[in-house]
Amino acid sequence: MNWIQVLLIVAVVALLVYLLRSRTNAKAKAWVKVGYVLFVVAAIYAILRPDDTTVVANWLGVDRGADLLSYALMIAFVFTTLSTYLRFKELELRYARLARAVALQSARTPDH
Amino acid sequence: MSSIDTSGVWIIVPAFNEGQVIGDVVADLRSAFAHVVVVDDGSRDDTADVALRAGAHVVPHPVNLGQGAAIQTGVEYARRQPGAELFATFDADGQHRVKDVLAMLERISGGDADLVIGTRFTGSTIVRTPPLKRLILRTAAFLSPSSRRLGLTDAHNGLRVFNRTVAEHLNLTMSGMSHASEFIKLADENRWRVTEQPVEILYTAYSLSKGQPLLNGVNIVFDGFLRGKMRR
Asked: Which of B12, B59, B178, B232 to mutate to test the interface with A (most CBs of A within 10 A)?
């Protein structure tokens, strides 16, 4: 086994442990965790037998497994960016509503 | 000059760092209206104190949120005041004329509109909008399906007059400059009766320097696309 394989597997497993230990919003996160476990299994397999990704790539009409991975990565990145953007907008709205409640409580009226 | 009763009218002025001019704007408004509320959007200058001294109610945002959020706050403050029947939004930089508000109030008092929006592009007044700004504003109005459906020519005019129906249901979620198109979309979705009134915009050096950069149009279009994807 290469050193890079050891490092990648340790990193992936560490992320898994970290994710499983964080517990917020039980139901929605549960599916994320299931998905993540599947991802980790697939990742470890791909790390140990990198050539097998090429086989999958060929099924899909892509020459190399590495190319397939970079395509998947791009899509995952765009997805993450968008969902983060929407999440931020939603938080901004809540923040605005909180600030508005504070503002309405501290309104000042003129004397005349 | 006008026969309408202004005792139930609330003028909403969103303001951010307008200490230099807000005093005159409020004083001018107060000469015609009893109720003016300035929403101080987290200004770092003395906007709030100056506005209060000039006779406005002041609702201070603890942090800067943007003009859309300030308008929403102002409307929520005004609509809970006893006797509030009609509402107007009015920019703090002195680009609008009190005369135009009175004319718009008269128009809405006729009862055949819920919302009257100012436009700088129709009517007989000589329009002195800078050409590039004019082109972009016209394009923005044309690109918005709601604007087209409602037959509006000026998507981003800060001068609006509306009744309780609109004030009760107004729920602007776009905090920044995209609120103008959101306002029109809400009008379209809620089937408010909308009409336009020609108004004059006073492009002073001050108001031009405070105006939004034209590039902001890109943000506005982008926000418009995303708005539907958010939970409200």
From this structure: B59
- Nearest-CA distance from A13 to chain B in Å? 34
- Say if CB B220 and CB B148 are below 8 A apart: no
Same domain assignment for residues A1 and A44: yes
Is A8 a domain residue? Answer: yes
Residue A71 lies in a domain: yes
User: Which class for B82: exposed (0-12), middle (13-18), buried (19 or more C-beta within 10 A)?
Assistant: exposed
Tell me which CATH code domain B9-227 carries. 3.90.550.10
Hey, of A84, A108, A109, A112, which one would you mutate to test binding to chain B, going by the most B CBs within 10 A of its CB?
Answer: A108
Residue A93's identity, in one-letter code, is L
pLDDT of residue B138: 74
Q: Do residues A70 and A40 share a domain?
A: no
Contact B56, B37 (CB under 8 A): yes
**If we measure between CA atoms, which residue out of B158, B114, B117, B141 comes closest to residue B221?**
B141
pLDDT digits (tens, 9 = 90+) for A34-68: 888 888 898 899 889 988 889 988 998 888 988 98
Q: Sign of dihedral through CA atoms B169, B104, B182, B61?
A: negative
Q: What is the CA radius of gyration of chain B?
A: 16
Q: What is the mean pLDDT of the segment spanning A71-95?
A: 89
Q: pTM (2 decimals)?
A: 0.79
Rounded distance between C-alpha atoms, residue B28 and residue B23, angstroms:
9
Whether residues A8 and A39 share a domain: the answer is: yes
Q: Which domain holds residue A94?
A: 64-107
Judge whether A54 lies within some domain: no
